[in-house]
Amino acid sequence: MLEPLRMSLDTERLRGLLCALQDAVQSAVLAARDSRSAADLAAVAEETPSDTLYGIDGPGEAAAVDWLDAHWPEDLPVEVVMEGREARTFPRGLPDASEARLVCIVDPIDGTRGFMHDKRSAWVLSAVAPRRQGGARLGDLAVAAMTELPPAKQRLADQLSAVRGAGQGGLRARRRDLNSRSETAFAPRPSAAPDLAHGFAAFAHFFPRGKGLLARFEETLWERLHGDAPVFDDQYLSTGGQLYELLTGRDRLLGDLRPLAREALGSDAVPVCHPYDACTALIAEAAGCIVQDARGGPLDAPLDTTSAVAWVGFANAALERRVRPVLDEVLREFFPVPG
């Protein structure tokens, strides 16, 4: 098993910085949503190597950069990796990126497509790892936070954060009233169900390319696990949102195997999950969920904007023990390991 990079960090200070950054992004994005037309928000702004950026993405990115410029402390030089952009360092004026002590990965809006059409919440995601030679990885992340960007009619928004290795004691969750700005704490509780029957579970197949293969895989898995017993599907087009549904007890199993479908189909046109999408997996783990790579190992990828991440998340350890052997069997049939 991969071991996270160990380094003395003031994790509570970093938690506070990530949450403050996300508060600023939330305010800017909601203000833009409320003042601009739906057509403007949904217009394609730019195609990047990592994803398509839409009109609503610009205010979130600008708010993140402005906040980092104004508030990131000088004694914590950081390299920031953000969706759709080249890495940059803060505070500005750092002579060399190699002098950064930390790497911070940021997705200003995860779930853009649903949010820009006012269908369901998107999320601001960010996490921090110590910088290391060879590049930091998902397994090195020490602190993560996620903040809800709710649809227009919803006036409550959640913010969750966690520190790696602290268990549930390192997990914090608060619910904010966007009108009064008052906040209350809450305790996320993943499902304790030992199986999937009559519960929600799904593997991501958001886009036409790869959908058929992934749906056949999913159908085979559910049949072998539960026969004709129903397993309900809810495609939440946001990795952060999926992890939130898992750790709050709404879904029992979720996963994203699109990188495997891309390999099997030999098509780069299959969109995939990236490290900035999956950077808050440690929050789900702090709540008691099990999050693994597709084959059952620890979640791992470089902290960049282009690497593909395949993952599976289980609501609890008993469910993982029940499902994993059958999952591995079906994975070998649909997505055999080369060689």
Q: Could you characterize the architecture of this molecule?
A:
This protein has 339 residues and is α+β, with helices and mostly antiparallel strands. The protein folds into 2 domains: 11-185, 2-Layer Sandwich (Fructose-1,6-Bisphosphatase, Chain A, domain 1), CATH 3.30.540; 201-334, D-Maltodextrin-Binding Protein, domain 2, CATH 3.40.190.80. It has helices at residues 11-35, 38-42, 57-71, 112-116, 211-226, 239-247, 258-265, 275-278, 281-286, 317-334, and strands at residues 44-47, 52-54, 78-82, 88-90, 102-110, 122-130, 143-149, 156-163, 172-177, 183-185, 201-203, 253-256, 290-293, 311-314. The chain has an 8-stranded mixed sheet. A 4-stranded mixed sheet has the order 11-12-14-13. It has a two-stranded antiparallel sheet with strand order 1-2. β7 and β8 (156-163) form a beta hairpin. α5 packs across α10 (317-334).
| Beta-strand fraction estimate | 15-25%
Integer average pLDDT: 92
CATH class group of the largest domain: Alpha Beta
Quaternary state of this entry equals single chain
Indicate the low-confidence ranges by residue numbers: none
Q: So what's the overall shape?
A: globular
| Spatial gap, N to C terminus | 22 Å
Number of helices: 10
| Total domain units | 2
Structural class comes to alpha+beta
CATH architecture identity of the largest domain: 2-Layer Sandwich
Question: Level of helix content?
Answer: 25-40%
- Give the beta-strand count: 14
The SSE order reads HHEEHEEEHEEEEEEHHEHHHEEH
Assign the CATH topology of the largest domain: Fructose-1,6-Bisphosphatase, Chain A, domain 1
Q: State the major sheet.
A: 8 strands, mixed
User: Taking Cα atoms only, what radius of gyration do you get, to the nearest Å?
Assistant: 19 Å
CATH superfamily of the largest domain: Fructose-1,6-Bisphosphatase, subunit A, domain 1
Name the strands of the widest sheet in spatial order: 4-3-5-6-7-8-9-10
